[in-house]
Design goal:
Layout: H1 2-48, H2 52-78, H3 83-100, H4 104-107, H5 109-142
Helix pairs in contact: 1-2, 2-3, 3-5
Organism: Thermococcus cleftensis (strain DSM 27260 / KACC 17922 / CL1)
Keywords: Cell membrane, Membrane, Transmembrane, Transmembrane helix
Protein name: Phosphate-starvation-inducible E-like protein
Length: 149
């Protein structure tokens, strides 16, 4: 009876894993379709009436969605997402927020302090992740191990 439960659980986990992968692939596809639509909309609006601030905000938003797409692709390929990529999206989102609220005097000192703290925290996480990756690469080189990427 115990063996039957083990097989049933493994089969259920396998089906759920396939379903999860399907959902992630669908999200990746929808993300890329949305990026293409944003590029077309940005081009059309820029030809009609070019506003540099709007164009810059649109470009940064496209970059954010491309980073999200890259994370989805990494997850599909490796079933793992490096923290460095998530931090990059956070930095891009903060840059976009600062571009939207270009009048920094209206933000107030509390918001500016919060943004500065977020940037510092993300910088720390990004630096630690880079150090970890560099140490891993150095270990692999020292021991003559080739990575299968």
């Amino acid at each position: 009876m115990k063996a039957l439960e083990g097989r049933t659980e493994k089969r259920a986990l396998h089906v759920l894993s396939i379903l999860f992968d399907f959902v992630v692939i669908a999200l990746g596809t929808l993300t890329m379709v949305y990026v293409i639509r944003m590029i077309i909309d940005l081009a059309i609006s820029s030809f009609r009436h070019f506003v540099p601030e709007d164009a810059l905000q649109g470009i940064v938003l496209i970059l954010i969605f491309l980073e999200v797409f890259e994370i989805i692709v990494m997850y599909i390929a490796y079933h793992h997402v490096p923290m460095k990529s998530v931090v990059e999206i956070g930095v891009l989102a903060l840059v976009k927020e600062l571009l939207v609220n270009i009048d920094l005097a209206e933000l107030g000192w509390q918001m500016l302090f919060g943004i500065a703290a977020l940037i510092a925290a993300m910088g720390w996480v990004y630096t630690r992740e880079r150090q970890r990756e560099d140490a891993h690469t150095e270990f692999m080189i020292e021991h003559g191990i080739e990575e299968n990427t």
